[in-house]
């Protein structure tokens, strides 16, 4: 596999100050860098999990998904894979601007920048205390206008494994760290890319509840309140974040798979696939 995990995402927003406030407050991230049109927010001692930008020339939403290069891989492997798929890419070493040592960057079939990086900046002294302790950035869920082509690209070219499917409409993809999903692809034929949600994993279930209390106190709308997913086994909740349309999920007990042996399962699309606490139909 070429990548080990989701490292960070870049979001373009209308109001940078409001988005910083949301991710720093209810989002429980730490603001580690800020310029007029850019902000970096991280957790668990890492410089950024979310990069915010204010670029009025581009639509708001997801600009970039960045995955960490697998320890056993080298950038030349990534470049070879991209070249064989006839994808243009560039190699970057702009630590002072990007806060990662080295990266390969390209644009996927839905127009989202994708970066494979290594050497994320760390925060000296680690994370300052927060009310809810976050362990890691876990996954991002995005639409795919040509689901089959996107699935083939991310699995065959970049080497993601499929953990599970919901019918033929959603694919949960894992990287080499085995987290059940680092990337979720959702079938939206012909539609422009939208980012459905981003997910942070907390240290304990109590941290999910602490984050939920902050979100409720801030008066933010809950998209889904305390559900446990069938596929990953995680329990958590979602609130409506920024930019508009982006859900922010906090979860705990997200499962892992063994990338070497895992065989994907396919679930019927029912409410119980989303929330195992729902009784079966007709109960
Ligand atoms: Fe999720």
Structural account:
It contains six helices and 17 strands. With 283 residues, it is α/β, with parallel strands linked by helices. It folds into two domains: 3-120, 2,3-Dihydroxybiphenyl 1,2-Dioxygenase, domain 1 (Roll), CATH 3.10.180; 134-274, Roll (2,3-Dihydroxybiphenyl 1,2-Dioxygenase, domain 1). It has a nine-stranded mixed sheet. Strand 14 (222-228) and strand 15 form a beta hairpin. It is globular and about 55 Å long. It starts with a strand and ends in a 9-residue tail after the last helix. The relative contact order is 0.17. The structure holds fe (ii) ion.
How does the SSE layout of this entry go?
Elements: E1 3-12, H1 16-24, E2 30-35, E3 38-42, E4 50-53, E5 61-69, H2 75-84, E6 89-92, H3 95-98, E7 100-107, E8 113-120, E9 134-144, H4 147-157, E10 161-166, E11 170-174, E12 183-187, E13 195-202, H5 205-217, E14 222-228, E15 235-240, E16 247-252, E17 265-267, H6 271-274
Fe (ii) ion is lined by residues 139, 141, 197, 199, 249.
